[in-house]
Amino acid sequence: MPTPRTVAIDGPAGAGKSTIGALVAERLGYLFLDTGAMYRAVALAALRRGIDADDAERLAALAREVLIAIGPPTIRDGRAYTVLLDGADVTWAIRHDDVDRIVSQVARIPKVRDAMVEQQRDIAKRGRIVMVGRDIGTVVLPEAERKVFLTASAGERARRREEELAARGEKRSRQDLLTEILRRDELDSTRTVAPLRAASDAILVETDGLSVGEALDRVLQVTRS
What we know:
The protein has 9 helices and 8 strands. By secondary structure, it is an alpha/beta fold.
């Protein structure tokens, strides 16, 4: 079977979508787009400008105003890709705890999502793309040729997040991280607009106990099948 021109990878926070998606794109020679990073960039811009996470109108205007670019890694520091916000590298800044706390609120705002989805669909028109997020297969690209829903238990995702932070010299208790992940899951799966769920034609890939290489092989296998 020919390799699909559009690959949608969805899943909950911490499931490894960004890491695996970037590697799949690299293997296929495709463009990679992490839509979650786009929402994080908007959340970071809001924090820097003092915009409240509940101010829907100002956040919607901000989402239309900021320039977000995602490309191959420019520095060898563990990143899977580089995120630019108005030309500045914010790859790690969008992963800070203060962004974690508000990104789900920001992403719940319909006008923010409208602005982001419009950009995402325009990018996808080029084809040969791997796009990851929470609503790619259900909302952004329902016509994607291959859909994957990547998941892992909340405990496994908390462990991975703890290791990711430790690698950057940051320390958080696993219990705090687990609580945060469960809260994110609740917010993402119950939001009115584009709730987190697997598309009816998505292939489920569970990654508990799998290394990055093993998870990558599994996703590549189902992508090419």
